[in-house]
Write a structure and sequence with these properties.
The protein is α/β, with parallel strands linked by helices and 916 residues long. Helices cover 35% and strands 15% of the residues.
Length: 916
């Protein structure tokens, strides 16, 4: 039988309930969130008075009052981009983040690809709001509008914003879409394609408060109440909302200490085909078949099913067909459990269209988790065409706690057009017998994308812990392993939950950071617990149609579009254009364009505007690396003066999945060594190498590190990071790690390939004469077998070309500029001689130490370049984290030039580096 899939995270934003906890409370209390809209709401929604007065008009439905609210800054949206983005996309992005937080699965700490499987209703915001606003009508086919509103970009936007590298796609099968998405995610997990999945759906119809006109035989309820399986049922009610779950393989969830709500034991999909009276009609045979297939996949008899969350639309045609199909499937699988309960969440919150299936799944998972079945509202007497008790089923109208454990539940979702989905969930029994946590201090951590948010987060967590105390080891594991490693963080130690709460409250009040203990316990066997998530700072981003009276927060003052920009001077033009593109009127020259919400599309627009204004050619890739308006202005002015600076860059060694491993080139700047290494790795993952500085730059080691860190954070804005380098490259990588650490980022691993410690370079600078004398030895040692006269007299780097004549191994280097290589190598060595670390690194470090005897040629190089042979142990004095020295066969050069030794190095590297 296939391994069960654990539901480890849940987040909802539903009518009357913006959180999972409130949703469950509402279910237990029998709350109906479908409400009657006031006349003012109907008019504001644009409903004509004659329709409001129509006797068959039903002014009822559900709404999400804060659908206009979004934390654009947190997710890197500019105000302009946020405003043109469908509220469905924005709400799902926030809900996906909350589900990952609930799961204790921080996006930047998950080791492996995470998939996104999502569903959404068509963008009514585009047609009702954007298209009907004269300011935006001309932009309807622009990329920001299309990307912000098209279904295609729902899942991929989440993957991009959260840095998730598994498959990401939007699934559309009408009402069954989000439960189909669950099935697809389960399949992807079981094939090993991903390690976790974010799955969900969202549906917001604009205007939300419009009501509907009842039509006999339609799906809308005559009285505005959804009454599944009830005698008085006349249809359903349109709902609005969002739900998301996080799924993992059960073995992974247990190993990670995750809280498991329930297990997906089996799932199935099919389509009715043409075995029904019409395209929109349901099919008994199709629904029965999908339920039976899911039971077989789960490997359990129907008698284990104690509750079924039905599709339950309350329609005269749908309910009887669904009941007959369910009965038929259960009878074929051994017979229904006596007293099996049926329910439908649509009675509480309406029909959520593309989000209906996942919300039904969430309700069923919570039922198994809490071992309580909430009351089914709007049910008095069963539909005569739905013989419940005769077939062993019941509908409970009061909260029900079973006498014996509720083992399993079914969830159905059926889409118009015939795509049917069914999931079988089983209970996950938690072992409550645990030993007490080890006495002593535990390390705790809170973080935020900006420093001023830390006190607020600390106070929020302190208040929660005072009301809901947890084990200190559980708290430590959740905070250190289950929360994102933001740029601004605070680490501290505590021996109990109450002590942690007091320290957090004190920090929130005084700003004084608590201490970190010297010796701390590791929460190896702890479990993740429910903690408050990141408190979004939401504000209104909304476009009102011209003819509708605004009911939400007014838009900020309009900014002229880029086409209308009139400015004197490069700086003023760039700044004015950037402000217009982002609609951030307060943007200053030194503000970060990308932090203000600038996407690559905005950069394209900005570059295009500058090209047109000044009639110049710009290198887009180099321009994209610039962060502030001031940097952009300087670059444009340099291009105009024909003196554009050379920007830092990178090259892709392998484009695998996951967060990249960043590697710094050795002295001279070539990355051939990493290409050889990658070629010998069975699963190299993503490897990115930095390009060398220009021979004209002559940067210090710290300047090189700054240059590389800027490029690194352009590619991966936040940690944790993995980086390393060979020889000189390792020294630069070490300084990069120190700079990242100082910026509050986490370095998950630093890998040094036979890099000499700083102590090896202490002493006098190298003379030009000795450097030139060392060059022939360096070439001969670096390329074994090449015919190099090590005794040749070299008076300048230009003399090197005659040394490589006839050597095919070096001709490629020569053609690309051996002279430049030598100049850069000379600069790199000078940077090493002038560098010594000024603080300790707290990250884990692995040093690959070449163990072969140093050959005579290399000894001569070391002598001439004044590099002392001190071994690798002196590195330890610069590192407070774990240091591991791995011995590899070969000398300083052959570990990357000899084919067999490169293979052995790759084996050792893969054994210690996670993800390879």
């Amino acid at each position: 039988m296939a391994e069960p899939i654990a539901i480890v995270g849940i987040a909802t934003h539903l009518p009357g309930a913006s959180t999972r906890e409130q949703f469950w409370t509402n279910l237990l209390d029998g709350v109906e969130s479908v409400r009657r809209f006031e006349i003012e709401e109907l008019r504001a929604a644009g409903v004509p008075q004659e329709l409001i007065d129509h006797p068959l008009y039903v002014p009822r439905g559900t709404d999400i009052p804060d659908a206009d609210q979004f934390d654009a800054e947190f997710f890197g949206f500019s105000p302009a981009e946020a405003r043109v983005t469908d509220p469905q996309h924005r709400l799902f992005l926030q809900t996906a983040w909350e589900a990952l937080e609930d799961a204790g699965a921080a996006p930047d700490r998950i080791d492996g690809p995470v998939g996104v499987f999502a569903a959404t209703t068509s963008s009514s915001y585009l047609f009702n709001n954007v298209q009907r606003n004269s300011r935006y009508q001309a932009d309807l086919r622009s990329y920001p509008v299309l990307i912000g509103n098209d279904k295609d970009f729902l899942a991929t936007r989440v993957a991009y914003k959260l840095g998730l590298t598994g498959p990401a796609f939007t699934i559309q099968s009408a009402c069954s879409s989000s439960l189909v998405a669950v099935h697809q995610a389960v399949q992807s997990l079981r094939t090993g394609e991903i390690v976790a999945a974010v799955v969900g759906g969202v549906s917001i119809n604009e205007p939300q408060t419009a009501g509907y006109l009842y039509q006999e035989g339609g799906i809308g309820a005559r009285d505005g109440h959804c009454r599944p399986f009830d005698r008085q049922a006349s249809g359903t009610v349109r709902g609005n909302g969002c739900g998301a779950v996080v799924l993992k393989r059960l073995s992974d969830a247990v190993a990670d200490g995750d809280r498991v709500y329930a297990l997906v034991a089996g799932s199935a999909l099919n389509n009715d085909g043409n075995d029904k009276v019409g395209f929109t009609a349901p099919s008994i045979a199709g629904q029965a078949a999908v339920i039976g297939t899911a039971l077989v996949a789960a490997g359990i008899p129907a008698g284990d099913i104690g509750y079924v969350e039905t599709h339950g639309t309350g329609t005269s045609l749908g309910d009887p067909i669904e009941f007959r199909a369910l009965s038929r499937a259960h009878q074929a699988a051994g017979g229904a459990r006596e007293g099996c309960l049926l329910g439908s969440v649509k009675a509480n919150i309406g029909h959520l269209d593309a989000a209906a299936g996942v919300v039904g799944l969430i309700k069923a998972a919570l039922i198994l988790h809490h071992q309580t079945v909430p009351p089914q509202i709007n049910f008095t007497d069963s539909n005569p065409a739905v013989p419940l008790e005769r077939n062993g089923y019941r509908i409970n109208t009061k909260a029900h706690v079973p006498d014996s454990a509720l083992l399993a539940a079914g969830v159905s979702s059926f889409g118009i057009g015939g795509t049917n989905a069914h999931c079988v969930l089983t209970r996950f029994a938690v072992d409550e017998q645990r030993s007490e946590p080890e006495p002593g201090a535990y390390r705790l951590r809170i973080g935020a994308p900006k420093a001023e948010a830390l006190p607020r987060i600390a106070q929020r967590l302190a208040d929660h812990l005072h009301l809901h105390p947890v084990r200190i080891d559980d708290l430590a594991r959740t905070l250190t392993q289950g929360r994102n490693s933001f740029a601004h963080a605070m680490e501290f130690s505590a021996e109990s939950c109450s002590a942690a709460a007091d320290l957090l409250a004190a920090f929130a009040h005084s700003g004084v950071r608590p201490a970190v203990a010297e010796i701390e316990n590791a929460p190896v066997h702890a479990r993740k617990v429910v903690l408050p998530g990141y408190p979004f700072e939401r504000r209104s981003y909304w476009i009102e149609p011209d003819e509708t009276t605004p009911t939400s927060v007014p838009e900020p003052a309009a900014v002229e579009r880029p086409a209308a920009v009139v400015a004197d001077g490069v700086g003023e033009f760039v700044l004015t254009t950037a402000r217009a593109l982002l609609e951030v009127v307060e943007l200053s020259p030194n503000d970060d364009f990308f932090d203000a919400g600038g996407e690559s599309i905005a950069v394209v627009d900005l570059v295009t505007a500058i090209r047109d204004e000044f009639s110049i050619e710009l290198d887009f890739e180099g321009f994209e690396g610039l962060r502030t308006v001031a940097e952009m202005t300087a670059y444009v002015e340099a291009v105009m003066a024909d003196a554009a600076p050379v920007r830092g860059g990178s090259v892709t060694i392998t484009a695998g999945a996951g967060r990249p491993l960043f590697l710094v080139p050795p002295a001279g700047g070539t990355n051939f060594c990493y290409q050889r290494l990658a070629a010998n790795l069975a699963a190299p993952g993503a490897i990115t190498a930095f390009t060398a500085a220009s021979a004209d730059e002559d940067l210090t080691l710290r300047q090189l590190a700054v240059r590389n860190v800027e490029e690194l954070r352009r590619i991966q804005p936040v940690g944790p990071y993995r980086l390393g380098g060979y020889s000189f490259g390792g020294n630069v990588a070490f300084e990069m790690a120190l700079q990242l650490q100082a910026a509050g980022q986490i370095v998950a691993g630093l890998y040094l390939f036979d890099s000499h410690p700083p102590a090896a370079y202490v002493g006098d600078a190298v003379s030009e004469t000795d450097f030139l004398a060392a060059l022939p030895h360096m070439l001969a040692t670096a390329v074994p077998g090449a015919d190099i006269d090590v005794n040749a007299v070299v008076t300048s780097v230009a003399d090197l070309e005659h040394l490589v004549a006839g050597n095919s191994d070096l001709s490629a280097i020569a053609r690309e500029g051996l002279e430049k290589f030598a100049v850069v190598w000379r600069q790199n060595h000078g940077a090493l001689k002038a560098y010594y670390p000024d603080r300790k690194l707290e990250a884990p470090v692995v040093i690959f130490h070449a163990t072969d005897d140093v050959p005579p040629g290399e000894l001569e190089v070391l002598r001439l370049l004044r590099i002392a042979q001190v071994g690798k142990d002196p590195w330890r004095q610069h590192i407070s984290g774990e240091v591991r020295i791995v011995e590899v066969p070969g000398d300083h050069y052959t570990i990357f030039t000899d084919a067999e030794r490169v293979r052995l190095l790759a084996d050792e590297f893969a054994a210690v580096v996670v993800g390879l």
